[in-house]
């Protein structure tokens, strides 16, 4: 699987660390913290995921990927995605 | 190995190396203005023997000089006061110069990136892995000659990979 890093370009997946669903947002209070830390949907289809380019530019990126066929439809730096 | 795909590898010594990480909100142009060059915003090498910046990530560069003063990294940090953090890496990395007409084929055996001259040319750079060893590499000229920086403690292992792989070219 190749992942298109916004900085480095196309790279093999083994350079990256997979974190998973990029949708959860850190809650401002203790309410919802358990869900934020532990609960993840197991989506079959297009989703946005966090990947860390550990063996490249060492940045977190948000990748839009279809989990059924690994088709990538875009990637941005996580710091830009969170703005 | 035949003469048609020879590889010449030399260890570069006496280099000054430093990691430059720009502060939040500081544009690459501001770093460039302070240093008198226009650093690459992507993975690329800009500069000369006196000072070159190799892009390693957004807002981060590996600074390299071939003739460092003893306090070179401090001078660099002084020029970038308020703009970027500078940490001396001269002892942290070993730089190998890999030339010869088999150099491109050699690196293509190790890194999973495209080294075709249409996409990787003089001034191109990449941070990646070769044989599980982290490397920062860039193309110096179209001979082609490449420089590969690797963590110093992995230098022996990297050189061993070069020698065994070059023998199979």
Explain how this protein is built:
Chain A is mainly beta. Chain A is built from two helices and six strands; from the N terminus they run βββαβββα. In chain A, strand 5 and strand 6 form a beta hairpin. The N and C termini of chain A lie far apart (about 30 Å). In chain A, the strands form two sheets. Chain A has a four-stranded antiparallel beta sheet. Chain B is an alpha+beta fold. Helices cover about 20% and strands about 35% of the residues of chain B. Chain B contains four helices and ten strands, in the order ββαβββαββαβββα. A five-stranded antiparallel beta sheet of chain B has the order 1-7-10-9-8. Chain B has a five-stranded antiparallel beta sheet with strand order 3-4-5-2-6, covered by helices on one side. Chain B is globular. The mean pLDDT of chain B is about 95. At the A-B interface, strand 2 of A face strand 8 of B.
Which structural class matches the secondary elements of chain A? mainly beta
Can you list the strand order of the major beta sheet of chain B? 1-7-10-9-8
Order of helices and strands of chain B: EEHEEEHEEHEEEH
Radius of gyration of chain A: 13 Å
Give the low-confidence spans of chain B: none
Largest interface: A-B, 13 and 14 residues
Task: Please supply descriptive tags for the structure shown above.
heterodimer, A: 83 residues, mainly beta, 4-stranded antiparallel beta sheet, two-stranded antiparallel sheet, 2 helices, 6 strands, 12% helix, 41% strand, B: 169 residues, alpha+beta, 5-stranded antiparallel beta sheet, 4 helices, 10 strands, globular
């Amino acid at each position: 699987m190749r992942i298109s890093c916004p900085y480095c370009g196309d790279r093999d997946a083994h350079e990256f660390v997979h974190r998973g669903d990029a949708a959860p947002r850190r809650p401002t209070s203790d309410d919802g913290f358990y869900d934020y830390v532990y609960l993840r949907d197991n989506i079959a289809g297009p989703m946005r995921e966090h990947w860390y380019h550990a063996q490249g530019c060492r940045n977190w990126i948000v990748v839009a990927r279809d989990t059924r066929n690994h088709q990538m439809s875009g990637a941005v730096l996580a710091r830009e995605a969170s703005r | 190995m035949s003469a048609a795909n020879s590889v010449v590898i030399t260890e570069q010594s006496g280099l000054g190396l430093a990691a430059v990480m720009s502060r939040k909100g500081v544009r690459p142009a501001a770093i460039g203005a302070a240093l008198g060059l226009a650093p690459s915003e992507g993975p690329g090498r800009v500069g000369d023997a006196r000072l070159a910046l190799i892009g390693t990530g957004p807002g981060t560069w590996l600074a390299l000089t071939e003739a460092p003063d003893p306090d070179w990294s401090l001078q660099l940090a002084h020029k970038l006061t308020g703009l970027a953090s500078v940490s001396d890496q001269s002892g942290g990395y070993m730089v190998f110069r890999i030339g010869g007409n088999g150099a491109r084929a050699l690196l293509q055996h190790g890194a999973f990136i495209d080294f075709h001259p249409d996409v990787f040319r003089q001034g191109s750079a990449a941070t990646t892995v070769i044989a599980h060893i982290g490397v920062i590499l860039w193309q110096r000229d179209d001979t082609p000659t490449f420089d590969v920086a690797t963590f110093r403690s992995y230098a022996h292992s990297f050189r061993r990979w070069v020698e065994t792989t070059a023998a199979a070219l």
